[in-house]
């Protein structure tokens, strides 16, 4: 396998967002913003914009496999970020590819519903996701509704409930969990990182922004970028939290679309508005 010299490489395995703010496109922007070369494996095509998802076209499982084999056979991949996997067949294909190419630094963002409210994962595939993929990854990064759906529980309302659900997700076989608190209330946005028996609260002031599309994708991609650069989980998670915080803070300087627009992935490099 070859790579681009010392440039770290990360791969996103995710659905395409034709609006450019989340999914595959958002992941690649995050990788680029953080100095990581990004490659991709497309799992689904979506016809969507800032208002919502109009249609979804699933990529056949054998073509997902072909993409993984092409990318991993040629590039020296430092980390993998997994997003939208809309079917059980796609989940099985991705799990098989990770095993075949011995990928361990994997971030799984269990995307089930778009920020617009549109469902992106077949409910029947949730059990397959938990059984086949969750135990294979390095860290699971659900938001509060996703964690509740994985566990069949109501959405956590307090830090104590968040902690209990994060620990329950560890019980599913994930070695580490970052439970994102962006859907909670309060002056601070608190994420809980649980790994190796330790609990770390990642807290920053909550940002009141109109444009928040792609926050979850960007966070998971930023953690993967940290992995690709050789960072440990806590370091990568703290850097990802700060990156997304700044991207949300700068987001309303952008004016794309008539709905909830994207966060500002390139806030550190584009000229200030």
Q: Any idea what the shape is?
A: globular
- Assembly annotation: single chain
The CATH topology corresponds to UDP-N-acetylmuramoyl-L-alanine:D-glutamate ligase
Radius of gyration based on Cα positions: 17 Å
Alpha-beta content class: alpha/beta
- Name the CATH superfamily assignment: Ribokinase
The helix/strand series, from N terminus to C terminus, equals: EHEEHEHEHEHHEEEHH
The CATH class assignment is Alpha Beta
Low-confidence segments, ≥5 residues, pLDDT <50?
A: none
- Describe the biggest sheet? 6 strands, mixed
Q: Order of strands across the widest beta sheet?
A: 3-2-1-4-5-6
What is the typical, i.e. mean, pLDDT?
A: 91
Helicity level, as a percent range? 25-40%
Quantity of strands, as a count: 9
CATH architecture assignment:
3-Layer(aba) Sandwich
Description:
The model has no long low-confidence stretch (mean pLDDT 91). This protein has a 6-stranded mixed beta sheet. It has a 3-stranded antiparallel beta sheet with strand order 7-8-9, sandwiched between helices. The protein is built from 8 helices and 9 strands. The chain has 273 residues and is α/β, with parallel strands linked by helices. 49% of the residues are buried. It has one domain: Ribokinase (UDP-N-acetylmuramoyl-L-alanine:D-glutamate ligase, 3-Layer(aba) Sandwich). It starts with 8 loop residues before the first strand and ends in a 24-residue tail after the last helix. The chain has helices spanning 23-33, 61-74, 88-100, 126-133, 144-151, 159-170, 215-228, 233-249; strands at residues 9-17, 37-48, 53-58, 79-82, 106-108, 139-140, 176-179, 188-195, 198-205.
């Amino acid at each position: 396998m070859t790579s681009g010299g010392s440039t770290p490489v990360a791969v996103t395995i995710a659905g395409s967002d034709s609006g450019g703010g989340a999914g595959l496109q958002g992941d690649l922007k995050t990788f680029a913003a953080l100095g990581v070369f990004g490659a991709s494996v497309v799992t689904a095509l979506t016809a969507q914009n800032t208002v919502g998802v109009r249609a979804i076209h699933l990529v056949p499982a054998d073509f997902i496999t072909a993409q993984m084999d092409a990318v991993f056979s040629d590039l020296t991949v430092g980390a993998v970020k997994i997003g939208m996997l809309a079917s059980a067949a796609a989940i099985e294909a991705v799990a098989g590819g990770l095993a075949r190419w011995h990928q361990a630094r994997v971030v799984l963002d269990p995307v089930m519903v778009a920020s617009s409210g549109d469902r992106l994962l077949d409910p029947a595939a949730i059990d397959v996701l938990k059984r086949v993929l969750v135990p294979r990854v390095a860290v699971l990064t659900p938001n509060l509704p996703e964690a509740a759906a994985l566990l069949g529980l109501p959405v956590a309302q307090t830090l104590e409930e968040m902690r209990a659900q994060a620990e329950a997700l560890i019980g599913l076989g994930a070695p580490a969990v970052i439970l994102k608190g962006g859907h909670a209330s309060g002056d601070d946005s608190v994420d809980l990182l649980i790994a190796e028996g330790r609990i770390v609260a990642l807290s920053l002031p909550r940002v009141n922004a109109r444009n928040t599309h792609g926050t979850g994708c960007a966070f998971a991609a930023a953690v993967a970028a940290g992995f690709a650069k050789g960072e440990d989980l806590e370091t990568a998670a703290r850097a990802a939290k700060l990156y997304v915080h700044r991207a949300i803070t700068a987001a309303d300087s952008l004016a794309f679309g008539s709905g909830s627009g994207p966060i500002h992935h390139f806030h550190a490099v584009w000229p200030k508005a």
